[in-house]
Amino acid sequence: MTAASPQASALLFDSAAGPHLFVTDRSRVYGLERGVADELAHRLAAACSAAEADALIAALTGVEQPRVMEQASVQPPPLRTLSLNLAQACNMACGYCYADEGRFGGRARSMPLEVARASVDRLLAESAPGEDLVLGFIGGEPLLNRRVLRATVDYALQAARGAGRRMRFSLTTNATLVDAEDAAFLHEHGFHVSVSLDGAQPGNDLLRPMRDGSGSYRRVLEALETMQRHGRPRHLAARVTVTPRSGELLPILQHHIGLGFDSVGFAAVLTSPDPSLAFDATDFDGFTRQMVACGRQALQELSAGRCFPFGNFETAMQEIHRGSHRPYPCGAGAGYLSVGASGGMYACHRVIDEPAWAMGDVRTGTDAARRARHLTLHQVDRQQPCGSCWARYLCGGGCHHEVQRRGRIACDYIRDWLAFCLSAYTELAAARPDYFSAARQQRAAGADDARANTL
Ligand code: SF4
Ligand code: SF4
Q: What ligand 2 atom has the least distance to the C-alpha of 454?
């Protein structure tokens, strides 16, 4: 049984742990008696208005009425995370790269130290007093500008200390340039590092060639060995970019976990300069099947008390467990902004140099009016069809960049994946309640960095 209420304020579902009710508002999950679940399913099917459905849910389960989060106007929160586009250039030539190999449609360039320092100052100046801050380094390939990376970390630590603040660091890299000194540096400064790797050698090398056409897999493995020998970052994640040609995902997940990553996550390509590498609406059925196969494996392993760091699954478990109630898909334009090599600030790292997404400059400050407009317009309750989607406060409305370019073509996948995760959550909570307290402790040690890593 899976049934959404007419106004999508709730979802009834069955799992091996019995019938449950998911309430959209604050993403709450309740176990139900079989008789109550059957009666609710029957009467919800006949309910013809939102008010009637809400009253039924309240009468039969005692669960409160849902509320809508939409506000007339949203003021931007203080900054918390900046990502710095250290090198708008890359040493690789991946066919699906949304960033035009880092150049974002312009010429290749590197961020000068003066801009990186101004970014640190801006983050400190526009953040809330006492808040821990995150500085992310991205590209293109940020290690092409490692001199500025290292000098910026030194400067940020000094500036943060002077201001009585804590600054943490993340790096998103293709890992092909990591040398022994880099590894020691990333280890010493407790970096969260996200490495792009799309599968075992044949699959990865097809999708992720170097500029000379050779494969990147062997170089990434050498980097992993270097990090093992000279210093491991605090958290090492693998990001797998999935195209319609990627093949089966479970073997890729197992392969990457075998390489020793702390977390492995999949992301489907929706926007690509080579259209054959981007998902169409018809590609999502197969993707859903494969993600669920990976999720089932994770559920089995975690239920047995074994480690299985499938990032998409573990993130969903935590979001459901804490009762996620997000009005946006991400922090873009809110606590998170991305800085281009020349110092312009943008809603996020995917829209660098796009005037429509410009939100200030590190030398003069963020553009509060533009951020407020973006946040007001993009509240999930204001989006259509999100306002009537049961998954809205777990999903947040979909990546702004992808929605702008492709529309909401992934919604059925998102809902099917989340419906699977809800039922897996009830089974994992029944089998291993301690999983959630252990994961909470882990999060307390590094949640902010991990979040920055997924940006
Ligand atoms: S983007 Fe799609 S899945 Fe997400 S809230 Fe909107 S309608 Fe629902
Ligand atoms: S979800 Fe999309 S809009 Fe948000 S930070 Fe990521 S790429 Fe940018």
A: 6
Using CA atoms, how far apart are residues 153 and 172, in angstroms rounded to an integer?
A: 15
Share of the chain above pLDDT 90, in %: 78
Which of 272, 315, 330 is the best mutation target for the ligand 2 pocket, counting ligand atoms within 8 Å of the beta carbon and taking the most?
A: 330
CB 345 within 8 A of CB 361: yes
Ligand nearest to the CA of 392: 1
Task: Give the full edge-to-edge strand order of the sheet including 18-23.
Answer: 2-4, 10-15, 18-23, 28-31
Tell me the pLDDT of the chain averaged across its residues: 91
111 and 167: one domain?
yes
> Within its chain, how far is the Cα of 403 from the centroid?
15
164 within domain boundaries: yes
Q: Are residues 161 and 233 in the same domain?
A: yes
pLDDT digits (tens, 9 = 90+) for 400-428: 999 999 999 999 999 999 999 999 999 99
State pLDDT tens for residues 95-126. Answer: 898 777 767 778 889 999 999 999 999 999 99
Q: Which domain does 48 fall in, by range?
A: 1-67
Contact in structure between 169 and 189 (CB atoms under 8 Å): yes
Question: In one letter, which amino acid is 273?
Answer: P
Place of tokens 């959209």: 24
Q: Residue 166 sits in a domain of what CATH number?
A: 3.20.20.70
Cβ of 386 closer than 6 Å to ligand 1, yes or no, is yes
Last residue in a domain, options 67, 98, 120 = 67
Nearest CA to ligand 1 atom 5: 392
User: What pLDDT score does 445 carry?
Assistant: 42
